[in-house]
Amino acid sequence: MSSPERAPAVVCEGLVRRFGERAALDGVSLAVAAGETLVLTGGNGAGKTTLLRVLATVLRPHAGTVSVAGHELPRSARAARPSIGYVGHEPLVYPDLTARENLELYAELHLAPPGSCDEALAMVGLERRARDRTADLSRGMRQRLALARAWLHGPALLLLDEPTAGLDAEGRERLAGMLARHGGAAVVATHEPEWFAGGRELRLEAGRVAG
Amino acid sequence: MRAYRALLRKDLLLELRGRELVPAMLAFVLGALLLVRFGLGGETQAGGTRAATGLLWVAVVFTSMLALVRSFAQEREHGIWDGILSAPIDRAAIWAARSTATLAFLVVTQIVALPLFWLFFLQEGRAPSLWVLAGALLLADLGVAMLGSLLAGLASQVHAREVLLPVLFLPFAVPLVTVAVRVTVDTISPQTSGFGTLEGLGFLALYDTIFGLLGWALFEYVVED
Amino acid sequence: MAASAAAALMAAALAMIFFYVPTDADQGYSQRIFYFHVPIAITTYVLFAWGAVNAARYLWKRDQSLDLKSYVPMHLGVIFGSLTLATGSIWAQISWGTWWFWGDTQLTTFLIIFLFNCAYFMLRFSVEPGERRATYSAVYALLGVGLIPLSVLGVRFAQRNELIHPITFNSNGANMDGSMFLTFLVALAAILSLAVTMYLVEIRGKRIDDRVRTIRRLVEERA
Across-strand partners of A18? Predict the structure, then answer.
């Protein structure tokens, strides 16, 4: 059997997730090896966001098997969470709190070591805006803050939903830097797969793996 | 525990910054007290005092609805739930932090409202015991905050939440208000036994215990998707 | 099979209520409504308990059929609850001349539970069918379990010394003589079996509904 360091980061077999009567994921099977980057493509409504949310343990799978960082969902979801860094469609930050306050909150929730807030702010280039309310930041800066939030606790698996959206040139540089520094696996949903050279592409269509 | 403190700090900080909720609650309570004061005209008999005490409790419940309906509004509007739910925390901590914050808002509102209540209604004739009233308020606030936060978590994911939350809460408010009114009004008459008062306050404590335990156990199910 | 048992018991109960049991000395012929009212009230509580048990089982197992088995008793509880209130009001009007009395503990407690049941329905209507609705219903049903002892205790505390509702069972056992007790038991069995029959019918009906809906959706997807 594979040793823990080389165990796959994500394994799905026949994953199903419904919303009411509609199956957003209709039998998805895939595997992401440790250290690999999987690039998810597909049109709107193909199921990319839903898949990421299931992997982030935010949504429960309805059928099939899913395991993240070696932990089976939904049974061991709690154990899987420390290994996950999730960037969603929204920046997931409170508008009335400052950038730093938001990061401090998540640092406490994720039990991140002291100093990780400063490090994360530096990594995305927001040190000078740390005391500004998030509502006062531009879209691109909020997106950078979202990346910092996912990075904070040094997760083994990054789940990024359209991470390039709203980023300016400097923001993209920071994202590239973050991905380069990240030693673990990543699953990225994007409309710009060419930007993530070095990753394996997988296309979703109507809740299933295409092709 | 860390998660609880961090979330509570966040809730209190947001209210301090936004200052939307507590002023609204104060305005509501004061408005209600004023309206009834004018409505009662010159009535100052014990009957009027009983009615006024009953009214105070009704105002408490509706004020708390105001607070609870807005619970989790930020998490919902800005999609922040995904961030909180993907964190490795005990989800009951979210409920506990929200309950504590709601309790704080209710207490602050009542610290202002209570003296005014006294001023408007209880200057003449016998009045309910202040200690009993304060104690009952605190216990009732705790129960409302805890059960209310659980129901608010539930209602926040539903479209008709502003209507649904009061409807869901109403059956639970009845025993609470019934006992609270009785226990405070009883202290107006000099023959009330201390035992009776203890029994009433004990009931409120039991209410808090039961819904505290249920809230703790069930919140996970409410937020999970 | 349940239906025929229910029918037989109902026939027996009706016969006993109208022909067998002697007329009550205090209240006259109209007292016979008691043989409907109390069994219906007890059945309401039983239905509620059954709904709550299945709610807990649903949260444990996440089996969708348990959601149905929790919802149907609560639904029937509203029906039987309304009947309890109706028969109670009729009895109250005949015996005491009022339709309702706010000072009574049993009435108020029952009303609280009935309100809870209606709120359960509002909840169910407000959420789209699916796992989330099932989970929320189950959570709320379990909260209702906490409500029962609290309403009983609370109302009793708040309304001390104001009892007028006739007491059916006290610490010495049933408050009635032999033939009345027998009739009461038969009536209780009849109402309970009626409830069970309605439960089974409604569950089967909802299952068929579900299957029809699934078939319709599959047909649409193919087309």
Answer: A23
Question: Can the peptide bond before residue A95 be classed as cis, meaning omega within 30 degrees of 0?
Answer: no
Measured in degrees and rounded to the nearest 5, phi and psi for residue C173 equal 100, -165
Look up residue C72 and give its amino acid.
V
CA angle A151, B94, C70 (to 5 degrees): 120
Beta carbons of A205 and A174 less than 8 angstroms apart: no
C-alpha separations of B105 from A94, B23, B111, B204 in Å: 20, 10, 10, 19
- Would you write out chain A's pLDDT as a tens digit for each of its 211 residues? 444 556 788 999 999 998 877 889 998 999 998 889 999 998 888 889 999 999 999 999 988 999 998 899 888 899 999 999 999 988 899 999 999 999 999 999 999 998 899 999 999 989 898 899 999 999 999 999 999 999 999 999 999 999 998 888 888 999 988 988 888 899 999 988 888 877 888 898 888 888 6
Q: Which helix (H) or strand (E) holds C41?
A: helix C34-61
Pairing label, strands A71-73, C169-170: unpaired
- Of B102, B89, B119, B101, nearest to B1 by C-alpha is B89
How far apart CA C157 and CA C134 sit, in angstroms, is: 35
| CA end-to-end span of chain A | 30
Contact indicator for B69, B162 with CB cutoff of 8 Å: yes
> CA nearest C190: which of C50, C1, C4?
C4
> Is the minimum CB–CB distance between B198 and chain C shorter than 8 Å?
no
- Gap between the Cα atoms of B90 and B71, Å rounded: 19
> How confident is the model over C96-111, as a mean pLDDT?
73
- Name every chain A residue with its beta carbon within 8 A of the beta carbon of B89: 109
Q: What is the ipTM of this complex?
A: 0.88
Percent of chain C as helix, strand, coil, to the nearest 5: 80, 5, 15
Whether residue C170 has pLDDT greater than 60: no
- Residues of B with Cβ-Cβ distance to C108 under 8 angstroms: 174, 178
Question: In the structure encoding, which two tokens stand for residue A63, read together?
Answer: 């059928």
Chains that touch C (3 or more CB pairs under 8 A): A, B
Q: What is d(CA A75, CA A57) in angstroms, rounded to the nearest whole number?
A: 10
| CA dist., res. B109 & res. B29, Å (int) | 8
Please give the pLDDT value at position A159.
94
The letter for the amino acid at C190 is: A
CA–centroid distance for A201 within its chain: 16
Q: What gap in Å lies between CA C19 and CA A98, rounded to an integer?
A: 80
Strand partners, A203: A41
d(CA B21, CA B162): 15
Chain B residues within an 8 Å CB radius of C143: 147, 150-151, 172, 211, 214, 218
Q: Are strands A208-209 and A200-205 parallel, antiparallel or unpaired?
A: antiparallel
Identify the closest residue of chain A to C218 by CA–CA distance. Answer: A21
Q: Where are the alpha helices (DSSP H) in B157-193?
A: 161-186
In angstroms, the Cα distances linking B93 to B104, B217, C112, C211 are 16, 11, 30, 40
In order, the DSSP letters of A143-199 are: HHHHHHHHHTT--SEEEEESTTTT--HHHHHHHHHHHHH--SEEEEE-S-GGGGTTS
Chains B, C: CB contacts under 8 A, how many?
Answer: 91
